[in-house]
Structures are given as structure tokens and as C-alpha cells.
Amino acid sequence: MTAKTQPVFRFAPSPNGHLHLGHAYSALLTNRIAQHFGGQTLLRIEDIDVLRCTPELVDQMLEDLAWIGFEYQGTPLKQSDQFDRYRAAADTLKQRGLIYPCFCSRKQIRENADGRKDPDGAPIYPGICRHLSADEIATKMAQNLPHSWRLNMQKALAETGTPQWREVQDDLKTINIISADPMAWGDVVLVRKDTPTSYHLSVVLDDALQHVTHVTRGKDLYFATAIHRVLQTLLNLPEPLYHHHELIRDDAAEKLSKSKKSQSLKELRDLGWSAQQVRAAIEMD
């Protein structure tokens, strides 16, 4: 990083539910670290799930972020406006033979899995469709069978080698080199059945588009960085620095989650909380 290069950070929530204290912590911590490095913070709205990410939830998210004092520069990038870019990148990977169509249901994957789990605890894909012939694929495509597109991880790593990433430690000074283990994920989905992308594909493309130099996010995404470094290398994208922060947890030591209906910022505000109380609760004051 040269003296003329301003660091670029981003906060990238998904408005598929209401934000909670964990989101507030991540947003405000990103602001704090960006200020420490003399950088700017961008906002990205990760709404590839266009059914669950409603305009009402986007508006509520923006209102919540303004309420807690989150600051960002420029116009937020909406992933739902970027589908053509994601399709183009997926087409490139298809042409290179790095991704393949998968026609399997979740039930088929569960029934054929060998017991191994990925870092998120899901069964590793057993490779049912990896070796389909061109004729078999053409037949299934002609039948309009629902399908996703998976990365052939072994083939990808033959091109990239074992990836590494640079992890900024909590002191914001020390940078450790982390050796990634992408094979722990198996053949991950890069294009979903219902959407022309996935979290993994869209996040690396958007970080590059927005010139993000520093990625701050929760430790629940630590191991996913292995996938992202593979994709960045395959697609010749820049490599940002990473910082994975601690998670805000409930009384049972479980991470806060929209899917578990963790108390939202909106609910706290309706109960009479102030933004200062939110910041104090997550130790950001």
C-alpha cells in the first residue's frame, strides 16, 4: 500500500431479516478500523435472495444503520443490480471447465454423503454429478431439470495451488499468513438453482469492483476465506487484507442470528433503547 492509496473497507449486510446487535458491532467496528487506517467505508447491500430481501427490509436496514451512527461514503451497491456481472464470471468458469452442473436434491446429497462435514457443519458434496458425461448433461438440461453449478475444487486447486491469505490481528499491526484448506469445503455451489450467483462468487467480484483493500467480518466467515482466495486467483482479482472479529453472542453463548429471531435493532428501539445504549451494549463507546 502506497502513501497515495486510501484503504477501502466495506460493510455488507444481507437484508433478509432485521439487523441485530451483531450487525451493529460489525458495522461500527468497520467504521472504527477504517478510521484507524485513514480509510473510507462503503456499504454493500447483499440482496441476491430477491424473494427474502424485500424493499421494506432494505429501508429498515438503512434506517437502523443511520440510527446507530454507522457512516459510509458514496452510494450503496446493491447486488441485485449486478446479476449480469455474476453471470459473465460464471460463464468464464464454465468455459474453462472449472464448474459443472449439479442436479442433486438436498435429500440425494444427504443420502449419498460419506459422513464428512464442511466447516459450516453441512455434508460435503459427494460428487454425484461431477463425472456426468456431456450426453447425460445435455439430456438433463433438455428436460429443464433444476440445477446449480459447483466448483470442481480439485481441478481449481490444480490451477491455483494451495491459497493463502493475510489476516490482520486484533492489534491492527500484526499480519499473519494463513494457509487455507479449500478442500475442506468440497465442490461448493457458485451458481444457485434460483439465482445466477452465490455468496461466494458475488462477494469476491464485488470486493474487486469496489476496490476493497480490507475486509472486516465475523469469525463465522473465517474458513470461507479459503474459497474466496481460490476464486480471486482463478478470476485474477485483487487480494484484500482480512480481519475476522469476534461475534456478539446471547446468554447461551450462541451467536446472534436472524434465523433464530435474535432481538433486532428495531425491537430495541421500539423498547426505548437509545443508540448510545446499543453502542454500550456492544462495547463500542
Description:
The chain is of the alpha/beta class and 285 residues long. The chain has two domains: 118 residues, 3-Layer(aba) Sandwich (Rossmann fold); 143 residues, Glutamyl-tRNA Synthetase, domain 3 (Alpha-Beta Complex). Helices cover 35% and strands 15% of the residues. It contains ten helices and ten strands. The protein starts with 7 loop residues before the first strand and ends with a helix. The mean pLDDT is 95.
Structure, briefly:
With 285 residues, the protein is of the alpha/beta class.
Portion in strands = 15-25%
State the CATH superfamily name of the largest domain. Glutamyl-tRNA Synthetase, Domain 3
**CATH architect. name of the largest domain:** Alpha-Beta Complex
> What's the CATH class of the largest domain, please?
Alpha Beta
Poorly predicted ranges: none
Distance between the termini: 30 Å
Domain Glutamyl/glutaminyl-tRNA synthetase class Ib catalytic: 9-276
EC number: 6.1.1.-
Family: Belongs to the class-I aminoacyl-tRNA synthetase family.
Enzyme class: ligase
State the main characteristics.
Rossmann fold; GluQ/Sye; Glutamyl-tRNA Synthetase, domain 3; three-stranded antiparallel sheet; 10 helices; three-stranded parallel sheet; 2 domains; ATP-binding; alpha/beta; 15% strand; protein biosynthesis; 285 residues; aminoacyl-trna synthetase
Could you outline the blueprint of secondary structure elements for this entry?
Layout lengths: L7 E4 L9 H16 L3 E6 L9 H14 L8 E2 L4 H13 L3 E4 L3 H7 L21 H9 L5 E4 L1 H8 L3 E5 L6 E5 L9 E3 L7 H11 L4 E5 L6 H10 L6 E5 L19 H6 L4 H7 L4
Parallel strand pairs: 1-2, 2-3, 9-10
Antiparallel strand pairs: 4-5, 5-8, 6-7
